[in-house]
Predict the 3D structure of the following.
Amino acid sequence: MNSYDVTIIGSGPGGYVAAIRCAQLGMKTALIEKYSTLGGTCLNVGCIPSKALLDSSHHYEDAIKHFEEHGIEISGEVKVSLEKMIARKEKVVEQTTGGIDFLMKKNKIEVLNGLGSFKDATHILITKEDGSSEEIETKNVIVATGSKPSTLPFITIDKERVITSTEALKLKEIPKHLVVIGGGVIGLELGQVYRRLGAEVSVIEFMDRIIPTMDKAQSKELTKAMKKQGVKFHLSHRVSGVTNNGNEVTVTATDKKDREVSFTGDYCLVSVGRRPFTDGLNAENAGIKITERGQIEVNEHLQTNIANIYAIGDVIKGAMLAHKAEEEGVFVAETLAGQKPHIDYNLIPGVVYTWPEVASVGKTEEQLIESGIKYKSGQFPMRALGRSRASGDTDGFVKILSDETTDEVLGVHMVGARVADLIAEAVVAMEYRASAEDISRMSHAHPTYAEAVKEAALAATGDRALHI
Ligand code: FAD
Ligand code: NAD
């Protein structure tokens, strides 16, 4: 029987990064993955394919809506081939997952294909597609089995008309009317893709605003921008039923005045969150505790109740984000090597890759109010930047929240072009516990979108923004 220092179950961004760090630290490492390609949700049916389609559809929208204002005239019709767009996306996925194969070989990580299940705390069975199985022995285990789309009890996901993000990434036709249940990250990103390609898109959201966990100002700005793009929002709506009528889907809901309303489309995307995935893992054979919410329970070292078994990523508590899973992978590898790693969960940024993009780190204004922390707020609109006018991307703002007494930056919230990249500056600043004044005194290249960060910092230090 082969034996390893550490075995990782699941090859998503949590699992494969943990494997690389374990191998770097000298551990004999095995990585088990049930699918034939590595990379998990993120690389196969998540972050990467969704961004590929967002980029492709953005190019199309630019061509039909914005080229003209830049003086570019197209003679003849601009057409979309969804088939080619999806094929390109698949190529991007293939290249990216292939890159993980390379990294596994480079780091001498043993990749075992098949479903991993616990026999006991130190023995794992790997069951291959043909039914054959192999048993390995391991000193330590890192469970990184990720998550799957969740649904509502009365909805049947038929994968034809009533779909999740996985199917939405490989549709064969552009929907005429896509009804999206859930105005969170997936609903807005994929809703925007199909809106750009010509679909009517209706988003039905239970809360009174979209992206409800982000700063309220961001919800408002993104709603405004996406409404301009033609997306219809139905907020404070409680969905009560979804029926597939063959070529149509009818979604019924109760609005905020308790009236029954219905929406008929040709596709319904259910994007109401994801659930931790432990099916087939036989966690009970090792005695691993799973919470009522289906998450693997871990302590501050990301260790389960069984001393040699750790868990990371979407299968445990916290934000379901690829970079959070990666940090946790490195954290556990370094813990196993006897180091004392640290993760500041407050500084894990959140990004929505719509256009305008939305990015956040630290506390929202609502959280500061709720915890009674006195703060100052500085906000600067993107439309006041020369860079934004040059590109034509004038929606959005940067908002910096800093402590009223110490001026320490407590939260940074952005909407606008390329803010997914700009948020890194805020993370660095907050990691080093910068004040708003610190940021305001650093030179920011002109003309850049990043100047909005400096200007918002100037505004937070006392109404000192220069360009408004
Ligand atoms: P996963 O990536 O889910 O990987 C788990 C792996 O474990 C899977 O490959 C699975 O097959 C395997 N597995 C499960 N059980 C077993 C078993 N018993 N034996 C063997 N293998 C097993 N996050 C971002 O940060 N940025 C984004 O832009 C972003 N976009 C997204 C877009 C979409 C459409 C979706 C659905 C998600 C997106 N996410 C994004 C979230 C991100 O994909 C997840 O947070 C991330 O993949 C979690 O990583 P993980 O390693 O915990 O699990
Ligand atoms: P989400 O939690 O982001 O959004 C779900 C939305 O559905 C929320 O706004 C919620 O209020 C709403 N909702 C819940 N129940 C509802 C109901 N009965 N009727 C109407 N609305 C309802 O979940 P998601 O968009 O499905 O994404 C799942 C996970 O994947 C998220 O945790 C997210 O972090 C991750 N993800 C991240 C990115 C990114 O980082 N850019 C992109 C896609 C997905």
